[in-house]
Amino acid sequence: MLSVAKPKQYDFICIGAGSAGFNAARVAAGLGLRVAVVDGAKQLGGLCILKGCMPSKTLLCAAEVLHHAQHADRFGLSVTGARADMQAVQARKKRLIADFARYRVKALAGGKFDLIRAQGRFSDPHTLELSNGKILRGKYFLIGTGSKVSVPAVPGLRETPAWTSDEVLDLDFVPESVVVLGGGIVACELAQFLRRIGSKVILIQRSPNILRDHSAEASTVVQQAFVDEGIELFTDTRLESIRRQRGGVAVTFIHDGRKVTRRAAHLFNALGREPATAGLGLPLAGVNTRANGQVIINRWQQTSAPHIYAAGDCSGPHEIVHLAIAQGELAARHAAKVKQLKPVDLSLLLNVVFTDPQLATIGALESDLEERGVKYLRATYPFNDHGKSILMEAHYGYVKVLADPKRGRILGAEIVGKDAGELIHCFSTPLAMHATVRDMLRAPWYHPTLAEIITYPLEEIAEQL
Q: Are residues 121 and 201 in the same domain?
């Protein structure tokens, strides 16, 4: 008679070794739980390291240096022959990403938990069947499988060869021309990258503005920068058809009430991502999802099966690395029965778009406050009237501060402009500590710095109190 191997037992099993899964495993193991991380991807490291944050920002940085070199005359400098050597750019990117991934793999392999290189699928609420034929039993689970590129139902899109962000991040040549479908963060960052390395870029967005999750005021600034750099931009469109043709692709859409067709050598599908939860057997585990596969969670990251948690892109509500980490850590602590826990505080939501100019927000947006009927004071100050930004030729954008009208407590901030992603952190600690505009003005602000621009809207609100 054949003997059946006994399933291996764990207290906490993380499905996925990305930012959510790795950090959940690290915390759970530190709390004394017996932990396993299950991930069958060809490469370990997660989306951020391998195909997201780190490779994209490496390329954006290179493109920014090239952009400054090609426009050095604004600073009275003469630079000739500046161009993108994409094979060298890619070699640098691969070297850096390999180092980041190697560090993550070392942390995974050297952690106080088991790393199992296989795909996992639930067969019941406490059992995980692996692609290597083994079976795991768990008391608690964390789903941290991330997201994947989505292909919306646009006529011809599935039938037409198209790049995703994966292919754009691996380009070792300068494309002659590219049609970019979408106006979200990935679409905007990589459209500007393509334009700056020398491609003709046509960006087609369905919503009235690019970066639709941000204010129209902020997105308009980025749109103007794109147009000034030579990106052909169409917003408020309706895609009619996409078809392959000799020498490339043709995209037909409705814009301003008329039918428009644009052709290019390549098509870049940047119409969004969707949770990567198909194939996990979630119904067998009693885990409910939305129509797009997003795992439904409560404030403790628990799914409809309370012993199964989810974190990161697969559950949302935002696809941001530091949130995925916080969510994974919270799930681990909740499973370990740590007392006096607090849910992830989304009122401190921090978001950065790495276009040039950058767009960054923290805390409440104006639209949030207006929707909730919250009264607030608002003040802005433009970069084109600030000494340090003027001498840096950084004229696009503004700083906006939102505050409570009684005490001046900071409610939120929005920065569009040079290094906005760095400057927004000036508000992180004050917002977390419920500080007021007067509290922030007590601190010293060095002159001349970019950060000094923040004091102007703070002073304006202080005068209104």
A: no
